[in-house]
Amino acid sequence: MKLLHIDSSVLGPHSVSRQVSAAIVDRLKQATPSLDIVYRDLTQTPLAHLSGSHLAVAQGAPAPAELGPDLAAGATALDEFLAADIVVIGAPMYNFTIPSQLKAWIDRIVVAGKTFSYGANGPQGLAGGKRVILAISRGGYYGAGTPLAALEHLETYLRGVFGFIGVNPEFIIADGIQVGPEHREKALAGALEAAINLRAA
């Protein structure tokens, strides 16, 4: 069984989402010692954002020589995702949504003919056999019924985009980490406990 572990926070060891994603992977590794883990840190090996040249190549235009290494990197990212049985992603909220480096990765895995297709009845997800677990962190409180709920574009986006490719993602959430030290400690502790108690398979 293969697991793909993705981190996207720019905060390194100070990141809550990184701590929680690592705890999730540790929990799954303990339950399945033979788990084959591939790790990708999107801040250390970022993928380029899509350009007009990328889209032209996707439509059949010849690939410019200078785009070759980036197209190869994108193909590797897609292959890693397709090969994984489980995907664990650390995703902090930046300005109400996902980090741009995570968006660049998502743009390489949401690919027609690979993870979704269009048919007579509309789009159909092709990645439904995967388990995707998202460790998200938010500086404030953005849950349903809160004053800032309308600005929540992290969990809602990730739920939507993975749903589009056929995956029903799981979430472990640390909220209010910038409200104050005690809120951060409580949020992190709760998320780590949820990781420890995560369903193994």
From TrEMBL:
EC annotation from Swiss-Prot or TrEMBL: 1.6.5.-, 1.7.1.17
Record keyword Lipid metabolism present: no
Catalytic activity: 2 a quinone + NADH + H(+) = 2 a 1,4-benzosemiquinone + NAD(+); N,N-dimethyl-1,4-phenylenediamine + anthranilate + 2 NAD(+) = 2-(4-dimethylaminophenyl)diazenylbenzoate + 2 NADH + 2 H(+)
Cofactor stoichiometry and binding remark: Binds 1 FMN per subunit.
Stored Gene3D superfamilies: 3.40.50.360
Keyword vocabulary terms for this entry: Flavoprotein, FMN, NAD, Oxidoreductase
Matches recorded under SUPFAM superfamilies: Flavoproteins (SSF52218)
PANTHER family per record: FMN-DEPENDENT NADH-AZOREDUCTASE 1, FMN-DEPENDENT NADH:QUINONE OXIDOREDUCTASE
Record's function text: Quinone reductase that provides resistance to thiol-specific stress caused by electrophilic quinones.
Similarity remark: Belongs to the azoreductase type 1 family.
Name of the protein: FMN dependent NADH:quinone oxidoreductase
Provenance organism: Bradyrhizobium neotropicale
